[in-house]
Amino acid sequence: MVKNVDGKVVLITGAARGIGAGLAERLAARGAKVALVGLEADEQAKVAEKIGPNAKAWEADVTSWDDLEVATQGVVEHFGGIDIVIANAGIATAGFVRSVDPKAFEKVIEVDLLGVWRTFRVTLPHVIERRGYLLAISSLAAITHAPGMANYAAAKAGVEAFSNSLRAEVAHLGVKVGVAHPTWIRTDLVESADAHPVFGKLRASMPGLIGKTYPLDVALDDLEAGILKRARTIHVPRWVGGLKLLRAFLPPIVELGARARVPAADKAALDDIEQRGAYESAVTGHGGRAATRPEQTTAE
User: Fold this and answer.
1) H-type alpha helices, 230-249
2) Quick one: pLDDT band at residue 136, thresholds 50, 70, 90?
3) What is the pTM of this model?
């Protein structure tokens, strides 16, 4: 059943660019009031200005309880409540477990998994009040666990499991919980990963649909439709859902393909770290840099 978002208040984390910004624009065009929450204040302000009076931005780190409390209170005071929360904020690193920068590795789990839990925990009372909807953005990586993506895959698999448990906990309160699994979508995060001198080549070697990159509009179309339905799962595109049926067989297949690709990439990763340093070799995307800049990592 498709529901109207006209007049609904939608809080979106990681809304400075890509999926977050795109969903803000689309939902606002349907009459929603959108709250943009994230680290990149200037970019979010541009998105809000483009949308108009039904959008406002709040700067907040989704790993910070205080930031989220202040932003959520600001959203409630400004718009009167919260109906829908989209936990979209996410970053990624490039690197193998044995050599990746430890702080960058752990920051992915903090942002991508703990950031979802903290976002939902802080906003949940307001969503319960309006019998609303929570949507967590997971990933194809929750289903297929590729080399060089151990932290990202673990975090996104955790997001799926967390959402499934939460759904059962709040159903009696009238709150619906969804989890989305986008494949590779042409965003800043993916383009930055593709530009990496080592891991861009590794990703380019992924076969068939597993390695295909889709335009942003493909993701926005499916996510928008799922949000309107308050869907429990959103697969972007639909074939991602079919992979869940094969999940038990995927790790051995990935391992088989990695035998020919990983040894050279492992050596190249070590060379890259020696040339550029562990941090530069690991961090990808504007969001990743914002989340791992010195004042963010030392404050915790």
Assistant:
1) 239-244
2) very high
3) 0.84
CA 156 – CA 136 distance, rounded (Å): 10
Domain ranges of the chain: 9-298
* Mean pLDDT value across residues 277-292: 72
Distance between terminal CA atoms of the chain?
43
User: The tokens of 280 are what?
Assistant: 């530069």
Q: For domain 9-298, say whether CATH 3.40.50.300 is its number.
A: no
Half-sphere exposure of 185 (CA within 13 A, CB side): 27
Contacts of 42 (CB under 8 A, 6+ apart): none
The predicted-structure confidence for 40-54, as pLDDT tens digits, reads as follows: 999 999 999 999 999
Beta strand residue intervals within 142-230, DSSP E: 176-182
Report DSSP state, residue 126.
H
Residue 138 buriedness (CB in 10 A; 0-12 / 13-18 / 19+): buried
298 pLDDT more than 50: no
Which pLDDT belongs to residue 282? 67
Pair of tokens at residue 14:
């990681």
The mean pLDDT value for 26-34 works out to 98
**HSE (side-chain half, CA atoms, 13 Å) at 283:** 18
Give yes or no for residue 141 having a pLDDT over 70: yes
Mean pLDDT of 74-103: 95
For 18-48, b/e burial (b = at least 16 CB within 10 A) is: bbbbbbbbbbbeeebbbbbbbbbeebbbbbb
Q: How many helices (H) and strands (E) does the chain have?
A: 15, 7
Nearest to 166 by CA among 225, 124, 226: 124
Task: Tell me the average pLDDT across 269-283.
Answer: 77
- Tell me which residues are annotated as active site: 152
- Write out the E strands in 101-148: 133-137
